[in-house]
Amino acid sequence: MKNKPVKCSQTAFTLLETLVVVAICAMVAAGVSLGVTQAINDSKGRECSANLATIEGAKDEFSRDNPGVALTSLEQLKPYLRYGVPTCPAGGVYANVLDLNARCSCSLGTGNKPGFHSLAQP
Ligand SMILES: [Zn+2]
């Protein structure tokens, strides 16, 4: 009696094929997370721009309601800001908040990206 060679009908991935698939998945995941991080940073910059516009609006309303009165504290602005004095969502510091003659700005708005951490329109 002769032994017949048993044919293996199961197919499996080789180690190399598995590594290639894992590498492709890692590259896709890296690209997606990079895009999401950029989108989050952009949205924070836009939110900061909206905050600066809100502060400017409150300053305008204050100066219309109190002509000739100097703005000396944030308490004077609070009646014009329904949700309190906004802050930069990315951790920037606002300058000229109490200066009625200068536009307020964010410390992170130094880049040349209009509409991100600045009052400049994109
Ligand atoms: Zn900012």
Provide an overview of this structure.
- With 122 residues, the chain is mainly alpha-helical.
- The chain has one domain.
- It contains 2 helices and 2 strands, in the order ααββ.
- The chain has helices at residues 15-65, 74-77; strands spanning 94-95, 105-106.
- A two-stranded antiparallel ribbon has the order 1-2.
- The chain is rod-shaped, with a radius of gyration of 29 Å.
- The mean pLDDT is 90.
Average pLDDT taken over every residue: 90
**Computed CA radius of gyration, to the nearest angstrom:** 29 Å
**Strands, total number:** 2
Ligands in the structure? zinc ion
List the helices and strands and how they pair.
Layout lengths: L14 H51 L8 H4 L16 E2 L9 E2 L16
Antiparallel strand pairs: 1-2
Bound molecules: zinc ion (ZN).
List keywords for this structure.
single chain, 122 residues, mainly alpha, two-stranded antiparallel sheet, 2 helices, 2 strands, rod-shaped, binds zinc ion
Question: TL;DR of this structure?
Answer:
The chain has 2 helices and 2 strands.
